[in-house]
Amino acid sequence: MNLRTLQDTPSWEWPEGAGKMFLGILRDEKADESERLLAAELAGDFTVINDELADALLAIACKGDEPEDLRERAAISLGPAFESADIDGFDDPDFVPISEQTFSRIQKTLRRLYMDAGVPKEVRRRILEASVRAPQAWHRNAVRAAYSSGDEDWRLTAVFCMRFVQGFENQILESLDSRDSDIHYEAVCAAGNWEIDAAWSHIAGLVTTEETDKFLLLAAIDAVASIHPQEAPEILVDLIDSEDEDIVEAAYEAMNMAEALAGEDWDDDDDDYDDEFPH
Q1: pLDDT tens digits, 44-67
Q2: pTM reported for the whole predicted model
Q3: CA-only gyration radius of the chain, Å
């Protein structure tokens, strides 16, 4: 097995033993740094992540003598499994990639690391971004402090975190007007996640404006379906004629989601489109 080959291969096609290979590379401090960085990225995938890999990633995030970018990547890779465990609980272990004991250990350790001012800024940012995937009470103050810090990097982290931590509607709306494209993107995602009605006109405008960057457009497509599902299809339907397959797919998925959220078959009176749209 070759890491670069696995990177270019869908994870469901990875051979048996891929996770063990990642684990070996992560634990080998003499391994090439670029290989360890890639192994840390791939190890967070749902097809391989388990208690052993999670512990290895957490150990790297904790070690002050590890390269900073490797610590960042290790922290980020813990996020998806962490979120899954928080949402699904531990009643059925087959549906959760890590155990409750590992989840609890990660939760406590990430908080301790974040509170340690001696940990490098970028590592602390990634730790906060990973830990909010399973929100706790302390996150609200941490996100508020990051947003008001005056540091644009921390502000970006804060708006990302607002997708997961409630109570920041005003800050999300304010961030929709940010000149920073990354902050703008994260604000769109957060507004869609919390179905913020006051964000509708701004996000609908992004969908209907040809100048919208593709990356931002894809986020806006998802958001309009969440905020106003009954109105979203009328705005999204023109996108199915796009020459970009990613945009077409996103529009279809968003319209399906809007239909489910609206609780009705919104295209019943459009027979031509009804034949084309996949239910």
Answers
A1: 999 999 999 999 999 999 999 999
A2: 0.90
A3: 21
